[in-house]
Write a structure and sequence with these properties.
The complex is a heterodimer of chains A (about 180) and B (about 210). Chain A has about 180 residues and is mostly helical. Helices cover about 65% and strands about 0% of the residues of chain A. Chain B folds into two domains: about 60 residues; about 120 residues, Cation efflux protein, cytoplasmic domain (Alpha-Beta Plaits). Classes of the chains: A mainly alpha (about 180), B alpha+beta (about 210).
C-alpha cells in the first residue's frame, strides 16, 4: 500500500485527518508539538518527571476532543490550552494549600537582574526572568502573553477573581520590565 | 550607559508615565491602540513604555519556541505509548450497516473505517492529500441516500479540476466496491493549497520515509 508522506503537511490538514481517525496524521502532530508542549510544561511545572505524563495526557484528551476544534490551523494553541489546564490540575493536586490561588507579594531576589544579564539572547533572558518570578505571577504571565488568554479566561481557569488576576499581571509586568532592563 | 530607551523604563508609576499606569498601557496595547488616546500617543514616556511592552510580548512568545528547540525530539517508545493509549473508538463515528447475506447477520462498518477507505483511495492521486471526509445523511439506515464530502489539499502546480475529478471517481469506486452505501453524490472541495516547505523543515523528517515503502 502506498502512503503519502505526511510529515510536511500543514496543521489544518493533519488536524482534519486526525479528527477523521487517521492515527498516522496524529502521530505527525505529536512529533511536531511534543518539544513545544514539554517546554511549556517545564515552564509551568518545573523540571519534574511529570512532564512526559502531562504531555501524553494532553494528546489523549486532544484526540478524544478533535471534534471540538473548529479550525485545524489553530491546533498548536489549542494543544497548549489543553496542556495548560492539565498543568493547573497538577499544581492543584500537589499542594494542600492551593498554590494556584496563593497571592504572592514576593518579588524576584536581589541577584535576579545579574542572572538575567548573563543571558546570551533576548529569548534566553526572558526565560531566565520568568524563572525568577513568583509562581502565580509567572503562570498568569504565560497564560496572558503566550496563550493569549484574556483576563477573564485566566480568572476562569485559575478560579480567581478577575481583579486578582489583574493584580498578579500588574506585578508580573513590572517585574519583567525591570528584569529585562538588566539584560539590555 | 543609558540609551534613549532607558529613560522611563525603570520608573513605571503614573508620575513617570504622564499620569497613566503601566497596566493601562498594556490594556491599550491589547485593544490594538483603539480608540486612539492622544494622552498616550503624544507622550514620549508612554511610547517608550509601550515599546518595552511590545518587545517583551514578542520575546515571551519567542522564548517558548527557543526553549522548545532545547527539548529533545519526542522519544519513539514514548510516542508508541501515547498511540497505544488513544482510543480508536473515540474517532470511529457511527455504525454503518452492510447488506446482510443471511437474515441473522447484522454486519456493520464504522464511519471511521469508511473515511479511511476514502483517504486511501484519494491519497493515491498524485499531488493530492485528503484533508477531511464526511458522510452526510442517515448512514445508519441501509439504503438511505448519502452525500460524501471530500475536502482536499492540493500541491501547488497540480491541475485542480483534473485531480478533483480523479478523486471523485476513485472515491465513488471504492465506496461502491467495499460498502453498501447508496451514494447520491461525491462532492469534492479543494480546501488547502500545499506549498513546498522550506528545506530546513524537511531534512530531519526521516521518520515518515519508511511509510512510503
Amino acid at each position: 500500500m502506498q502512503h503519502q508522506p505526511l510529515a510536511d503537511l500543514d496543521d489544518a490538514v493533519l488536524a482534519g485527518r486526525s479528527s477523521d481517525g487517521d492515527v498516522r496524521a496524529f502521530e505527525v502532530l505529536i512529533r511536531r508539538y511534543t518539544p513545544l508542549l514539554r517546554a511549556y510544561a517545564r515552564r509551568t511545572l518545573g523540571s519534574t518527571d511529570e512532564l512526559d505524563d502531562v504531555v501524553q495526557e494532553t494528546f489523549i484528551t486532544a484526540w478524544n476532543r478533535l471534534d471540538a476544534l473548529d479550525d485545524g490551523a489553530r491546533v498548536k494553541s489549542w494543544l497548549m490550552r489543553i496542556l495548560s489546564r492539565k498543568c493547573i490540575d497538577r499544581i492543584r493536586a500537589r499542594h494542600v494549600h492551593d498554590d494556584v490561588t496563593e497571592l504572592e507579594v514576593a518579588a524576584p531576589d536581589d541577584g535576579a537582574p545579574d542572572r538575567v544579564a548573563e543571558a546570551r539572547s533576548r529569548e534566553e533572558a526572558v526565560e531566565t526572568a520568568l524563572a525568577e518570578l513568583p509562581d502565580a505571577q509567572r503562570r498568569c504571565w504565560v497564560m496572558k502573553e503566550v496563550l493569549e488568554y484574556r483576563y477573564e479566561d485566566i480568572a476562569a481557569e485559575l478560579d480567581l477573581p478577575v481583579s486578582t488576576v489583574r493584580g498578579l499581571l500588574s506585578r508580573a509586568r513590572k517585574n519583567m520590565i525591570r528584569l529585562m532592563e538588566a539584560w539590555r | 550607559m543609558t540609551g534613549p530607551d532607558d529613560v522611563v523604563l525603570d520608573a513605571l508609576e503614573p508620575d513617570d508615565l504622564d499620569g497613566h499606569t503601566i497596566d493601562e498601557l498594556a490594556d491599550y496595547l491589547d485593544a490594538g491602540m483603539q480608540p486612539p488616546d492622544a494622552s498616550i500617543d503624544d507622550s514620549a514616556a508612554c511610547q517608550n513604555a509601550l515599546a518595552a511592552l511590545v518587545r517583551l510580548r514578542r520575546s515571551s512568545m519567542g522564548s517558548l519556541d527557543a526553549a522548545a528547540e532545547h527539548e529533545a525530539p519526542a522519544d519513539e517508545s514514548w510516542i508508541g505509548g501515547v498511540l497505544a493509549n488513544i482510543s480508536l473508538e473515540a474517532r470511529a463515528g457511527r455504525d454503518v450497516p452492510l447488506r446482510p447475506v443471511a437474515p441473522t447477520e447484522r454486519p456493520v462498518m464504522t464511519e471511521g473505517a469508511i473515511r479511511s477507505l476514502v483517504r486511501t483511495a484519494g491519497d493515491v492521486v498524485p499531488g493530492v492529500v485528503i484533508a477531511r471526509c464526511s458522510l452526510e445523511g442517515d448512514v445508519t439506515e441501509l439504503d438511505a441516500p448519502v452525500r460524501v464530502l471530500v475536502e482536499l489539499a492540493v500541491r501547488s502546480g497540480v491541475p485542480i479540476h483534473a485531480v478533483a475529478e480523479q478523486v471523485r471517481s476513485a472515491v465513488a469506486g471504492v465506496l461502491a466496491e467495499q460498502t453498501d452505501l447508496v451514494v447520491a453524490a461525491v462532492d469534492v472541495r479543494v480546501r488547502d493549497l500545499l506549498h513546498e516547505q522550506p528545506d530546513a523543515d524537511r531534512t530531519p523528517h526521516h521518520d515518515d520515509e519508511e511509510d512510503r515503502a
